[in-house]
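Could you join me in thinking about how sequence relates to backbone shape in a protein? We need material for that, and I hope you will provide a protein of your own picking. Once you have written the record down, we can walk along the chain together:

…
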Amino acid sequence: MPLPNINPTTTNSWKKLQEHYNKINNSHMKDLFAQDSERANKFTIKWDDFYVDFSKNRITEETFKYLLELASEVKLKEAIESQFSGEKINKTEGRAVLHTALRAPKDAEFYVDGVNVMPEIYQVKQKIETFTNEVVNGERKGFTGKSFTDIVNIGIGGSDLGPAMVVESLQYYKNHLTTHFVSNVDGDHVNEVIKKLNPETTLFVVVSKTFTTQETLSNANTLKKWFLKSATEDAIAKHFVAVSTNIESVKNFGIDKNNIFPMWDWVGGRFSLWSAVGLSISLAVGYTNFDSLLKGANKMDEHFKTEDFKTNIPVVLALISVWYNNFFKAESEAVIGYSQYLNQFATYLQQGIMESNGKSVDRNGNPIDYETGTLIWGEPGTNSQHAFFQLIHQGTKLIPADFIGFVKSLHGNQDHQDKLTSNFLAQTEALLNGKTEVEVIAEGTEKSIIPFKVFKGNKPTNTIFINKLTPESLGKLIAMYEHKIFVQGIIWNIFSYDQFGVELGKQLASKILQEFNSTSVNNHDSSTNNLLNYYKG
């Protein structure tokens, strides 16, 4: 069954939400809490080791009722079933969207074109496990007989951001191997990494579905050239592996066919860390932890697939996001992780969310006259409190924020954890309540300074409190946002899984690159012509 094509603005629930917004848009959350002593309990979801409090939002029970009606009217339940059943919901590219199959148990069934893909998935997982164990245990060695000490992941976009974020997030669980990530075609990037490497003990993982991506192949060839200064061609087979579908190009590069890990076209790049693209994750933290990451994601998949919408975490978060994006006209959302381990989490989500839902044409091919994708940004707390929180607290923009925290620290320093968590909780309370003029005066503030110290409050937040940062809980968290993306795309009536907007710049870059070696520059706008001539000297 294809995805429904329903313009959300034509639904009854959307009209109800607009009328409702006009009535409550100036309501203060402080008053909503004062009016209902059970508000926090009504707007909290407890699931597994997750505690999700969405009560500090500018919503009432009536708002929530209409948002749930919207989910029903756009046929969200049917859309979820279409995705999990292997329907080709990526219609513009004629592909199924089954990254959920990558983390499903062995006895599950996921069909693509009538074929159950689970046996093939587990065959690849077995290969990842065997390879990982051989490298980690020192059984697989380099060309001089030494065990590997460093792993270099060469990829860009989903072939870099996902693995890099997970490896950073799970640093506590890492083994003796040091993992590096090379993505940018900027030659300074790859050469800085080279300075840290020993060719005898470095394993290179080249990740490119097509094995044609300019940035990835440029970096791979640069590293290969550097490597061959110390080794012969036949040593490439020991030090380079690939994750790709283009077997011939990989073999032509010099990589042994046994060191090729396959990918599938029903897995989008930004959702591919669960596949062999996650090989560098497995190498960095061990296969057992990689498998726990997948199992955590699968738990969230089951929750999303089976839970009633009113207590379904990804659905609720997506509906709240639509409420702000389309009715309050809030253009961005901040993601604040109160753990330094989540340093790259917002960066990872930027691709997942903005590449997926940055669309201006609906599923019927018609231009859209309502807002779609949100801007995503953020940094870890408490660092971000000393940076951009000023804008969230006292700026003119409404910026809904997700606060992600953990009850337990990993290293067990309770003093630090108490200070971290006190900030985590205090910030959402401060954003809710603000500070009134009366309170500022009571502090003895000089009269002329009073307006500058008043905080309006009423700034919305979701609090996602998780027991502990483990591979499993991280898997749940990532999958939670993946499903939130899906729900938003269904509501906005867009195709979330293509990314044609990424291609145009690539095409023009190839054309310009050829002109660097020609005497004339033309067929560009005058600005680009001038810039090209300036670069060429």
